[in-house]
Amino acid sequence: MKLGFNGATTMTSSFETDVRIASQAGFDVLEITAAKLDAYLKKHSIQDARKLVDTAKIKTHTINSITRINTRNAAERRDALARTREISEWCRVLDCPWIIVVPGATPPGAAWNEIRDETIAALRAMNDIAAPLGVKLAFEFLGFPWCSVQTVAQAHEIVTAIDLPTIGMAIDTCHIFAGGSTIASIKSIDAKKLAVLHINDVEKMPREHIEDANRLFPGDGVIPLKEIVAAVRATGFNGIASVEIFRPAYWKRAPLSVAKEAFRKSKQALKK
After folding, report:
1. Claim: this prediction has a pTM higher than 0.85
2. Contact 106, 148 (CB under 8 A)
3. Which domain holds residue 97?
4. What sign does the dihedral 106-110-116-120 (CA atoms) show?
5. pLDDT, tens digit, for every residue of 169-213?
6. pLDDT digits (tens, 9 = 90+) for 217-255
7. DSSP result, the chain
8. How far apart are CA 188 and CA 30, in angstroms?
9. I need a labelling partner for 191 at 20 to 30 A (CA). Which of 9, 40, 41, 183 fits?
10. Are 56 and 20 contacting, i.e. CB atoms less than 8 angstroms apart?
11. Which residues contact 170 (CB under 8 A, 6 or more apart)?
């Protein structure tokens, strides 16, 4: 697999910094944090962003993210579709193939079939905007207790029901572990629909208490990374494994040192 760097790993740094350090640390691709690109575009054009990426000799892979796609009211859904168009236009210029899209919290009393159908409808509406611009949507479940879609199996059910080449999945080792997804469910994924594997580790603690801030560099925690990576490989996937670590303590460090440690430890975790 090729290695990616997700801007959440250095959340307090700028888009420009992420481009530079991802390249310097040796990563193959960058996953762009949308909020950082928003800030950059206040003073620059999207064409400037493309020049920055090209100069650094790194590729873009995803823009992260559009959130709560399945738990919005009518006005918020319109906003989500407008955001889909905006980010899709950025992707088109940046030659970035994927947008990460994320479910929201479980509505009170909602049954699984209601959540599934609402998520499918939201993804189809977003796809109608993104696909004509050559951009695909990667649906990423969250393994936290409050989330409406918590497992590989649930996300796979949604993506399979849609059955479009422009709608796939992003899976994250933290969410796989926290949400109790099985190794068998990972092996059932169609590799063609897998956009990216987010790789990270977590502290030793009850799974139901895990939060993003508990993430660690790959290999520094308790997630069975070797088993998960082997299961992903068993699907035939040989794409991007990208480091995504929302740990505030890492954000206080020099960004390049974080990127270099993330690269080294991710490469070790991906060894067969």
Report:
1. yes
2. yes
3. 2-269
4. negative
5. 999 999 999 999 999 999 999 999 999 999 999 999 999 999 999
6. 999 999 999 999 999 999 999 999 999 999 999 999 999
7. -EEEEEGGGGTTS-HHHHHHHHHHHT-SEEEEEHHHHHHHTTTS-HHHHHHHHHHHT-EEEEEEEE--TTS--HHHHHHHHHHHHHHHHHHHHHT--EEEE---BPPTT--HHHHHHHHHHHHHHHHHHHGGGT-EEEEE---STTBS--SHHHHHHHHHHH--TTEEEEEEHHHHHHTT--HHHHHTS-GGGEEEEEE-EE-SS-GGG--GGGEESTTSSS--HHHHHHHHHHTT--SEEEE----HHHHTS-HHHHHHHHHHHHHHHT--
8. 27
9. 9
10. yes
11. 62, 98, 100, 138, 139, 140, 194, 195, 196, 197, 198
Q: Are 34 and 87 in contact (CB under 8 A)?
A: yes
One-letter amino acid for residue 107 of the chain: P
Q: CB of 86 within 8 A of CB of 66?
A: no
Between CA 99 and CA 114 the distance in angstroms is: 24
| Residue 116, Cβ density class (10 Å: 0-12 exposed, 13-18 middle, ≥19 buried) | middle
> Do the Cβ atoms of 62 and 96 come closer than 8 Å?
yes
Joined together, the tokens standing for residue 100 give 């990460």
Tokens of 211: 């939060």
Tokens matching residue 233: 């490989």
Residue 101 φ/ψ, nearest 5 degrees: -130, 140
For the domain that residue 196 is a member of, what is the CATH number?
A: 3.20.20.150
Neighbours of 220 (CB within 10 A): 16
CB 207 within 8 Å of CB 251 = no
* Residue that is written with structure tokens 């929201």 in the block: 104
Q: Assign residue 164 a region (left: φ > 0; alpha: ψ between -120 and 50; beta: otherwise).
A: beta
